[in-house]
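Exercise: predict the structure of this protein bound to magnesium ion.
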Amino acid sequence: MRLSRYFLPVLKETPSEAQIVSHRLMLRAGMIKQASAGIYSWLPLGFKVLRKLENIVHEEQIRAGHIPMLMPTLQSADLWRESGRFDDYGEEMLRIKDRQGRDMLYGPTNEELITDIFRAHVGSYKDLPLTLYHIQWKFRDEIRPRFGVMRGREFLMKDGYNFDVSKEAALHSYNRHLVSYLRTYERMGLQAIPMRADSGPIGGDDTHEFLVLAETGESEVYYDSEITDLRFGEREVDYDSVAECQAVLEEFTSRYARTDETHDEALFNQIPEERRRVARGIEVGQIFYFGTKYSEPLGATVQTRDGASVPVHMGSHGIGVSRLVGAIIEASHDERGIIWPEGVTPFHVGLVNLKQGDAEADAACEAIYGSVLALGLDPLYDDRDERAGGKFATMDLVGLPWRITVGPRGLKNGVVELTSRRTGESEELPPEQAVEKLA
Ligand code: ATP
Ligand code: MG
Ligand code: MG
Ligand code: MG
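Solution:
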């Protein structure tokens, strides 16, 4: 992409309404624009990051054997009356009447809708296990929308639902989700710690939230510092193996890590004092096992091998896709701007032409631009007729992992400059070698 033809409305001033750094940087870098309280338009740069996160989520869900689909945002109230949640859900649910006077709602979550699909089409243990998921906009009329996309009213969530013949099988699905989530967050350059949590309006007994540690997080968390040494890394896990998924769950949940809702002071005090941590965290996902909480009232049953009819065992599993954009920035920035982890960056490299209009500099930039594209990477070329200082400030704000700087002086010696956004270190290299380093 050439900046002269892109739409990147960066702001010079720090917007006064933004209280936390990710919100400020998303506004300043031209990623989002508020449409109304808690509702945002995703401008091209923000949209690109959102799409990258969606892709990672899809890839990791499909790897785990989960099946993508798409359910609507608007739902009929009837199903929610069947489950009893139409009244229970409270003010967070946005209720709408259509022209026929029918009660509708903008889905805050999808347990009812998916259970209705299941009961219409599945009746036998032979069709199980089954996990369906989608990535779709949700609406929750949050009492205090704030922090930009971190607590929006309209937000993008991946929500997945497992259907199993028994509690035992459903707990394997739970573990499989835990493993897939660990992989997902690590690919985004994040450490998200599974913590024992409270199930809230979804209901159920077993639940973990995934939290990214950050001072601006809204949750208070208590944990054993040893947990922050754990990495999922490159390991291959067989998602069909009950033992392998169980082992990962045990490894990642055996140390004390809880949100304030489930915190137990006596248990916490059993950890050696120097390892006790009280901190704040951002909830970026949650997994639930809730058994037959929805299948019973909605009559979603399956025939077992012995011919008995039993309500199907379920769980639901959410990732806050749009919130993650903010969470990644909270975890990765400096005073000059965003620092994107490689896996989610909107462009791989920024190309800065120090003297736009200089025949040699322009030609060198064009050649580099072409060879970056040929590698299958995405360059952002600042080809505007602007001062170098302004171009550098924009690149730092936007936070691409690499910058290639091209100017007449370097070209005389046959070199360009390759700079790492994270370390600030620069190297002078012939153009071809600078491009090779990106691959
Ligand atoms: P919170 O405690 O922050 O209100 P939640 O527990 O109500 O979140 P879940 O029902 O667990 O949310 O939804 C799954 C994920 O969706 C959450 O882990 C979070 O990442 C994301 N999410 C929930 N509410 C919002 C929101 N208002 N804005 C952006 N993302 C959200
Ligand atoms: Mg909530
Ligand atoms: Mg929560
Ligand atoms: Mg939650």
